[in-house]
Amino acid sequence: MSYPQIEKLKSFSVLKLENIRSELDKNLSNSEYKDKITVITTGSYGRHEASEESDMDWFVIFDADLPAEETIEKELKAIFSVVVNNVPKSVGSTGTFGHEAILKYSDMLINIGGDQDSNRSLTRRILFLLEGAWLYGENRFDNYQKKLLQKYIKEGTPESSVNRFLLNDIIRYYRTITLILNIRFQKPESPGA
């Protein structure tokens, strides 16, 4: 069975990702920190379901014990420019994704499922695992995903068992999204109803 619309979205997404990857590689090739920078996308581009109407959910991992905004300011501007030139639709204003979303990889591993685990952290972490794609730093991206999965699924866990720790976070993420959408789209009651 053929699904031309799905194929169209996939082709569009793959072409955009290839362009962005190529431009980022060129723009970051002379950076002294190029081996510390990883750029990740999730959402419709990560799933290869993007269209001209899509925004791009992206974030940067800067794996150094230095303040990213000061240390790689030029690189961050280049990343932003490449993304915006290729995907002009603005990302949401929550700071979860986009030019404000810069973190160290170790930040993704802190307090997983704990009482200090924020919605922003949970969202990035789960989408990184479920639908993440690399824009820059493919090998680091692969290693980060493997390490994060190892944090959830301990060595020696039987293949036949459901990993409840990971499953709990996935359910928690979707529950959070459902509640947010319910609040956002809930119609106010009319007077006298």
Describe this entry's structure for a reader:
It is built from eight helices and four strands. With 193 residues, the chain is α+β, with helices and mostly antiparallel strands. Helix 1 (4-28) runs antiparallel to helix 4 and helix 6 crosses helix 8 (164-185). 24% of the residues are buried. The model has no long low-confidence stretch (mean pLDDT 87).
Order of helices and strands: HEHEHHEHHEHH
Structural class of the helices, strands and pairings?
alpha+beta
* Whole-number total of structural domains: 1
Q: How many helices does DSSP assign? A: 8
CATH 2nd-level architecture: 2-Layer Sandwich
Q: What percentage of amino acids are in beta strands? A: 5-15%
**What's the overall geometry?**
globular
Query: How can the largest sheet be summarized?
Result: 4 strands, mixed
CATH topology, anyone?
Beta Polymerase, domain 2
CATH class: Alpha Beta
What distance lies between the first and last C-alpha atoms, to the nearest angstrom?
49 Å
SSE blueprint and pairings:
Blueprint: H1 4-28, E1 37-42, H2 43-46, E2 57-62, H3 68-71, H4 73-86, E3 102-103, H5 105-109, H6 119-131, E4 133-136, H7 138-152, H8 164-185
Parallel strand pairs: 2-3
Antiparallel strand pairs: 1-2, 1-4
Provide keyphrases for this structure:
single chain, 193 residues, alpha+beta, 4 strands
Summarize the structure.
Helix content is 53%, strand content 9%. The chain has helices at residues 4-28, 43-46, 68-71, 73-86, 105-109, 119-131, 138-152, 164-185, and strands at residues 37-42, 57-62, 102-103, 133-136.
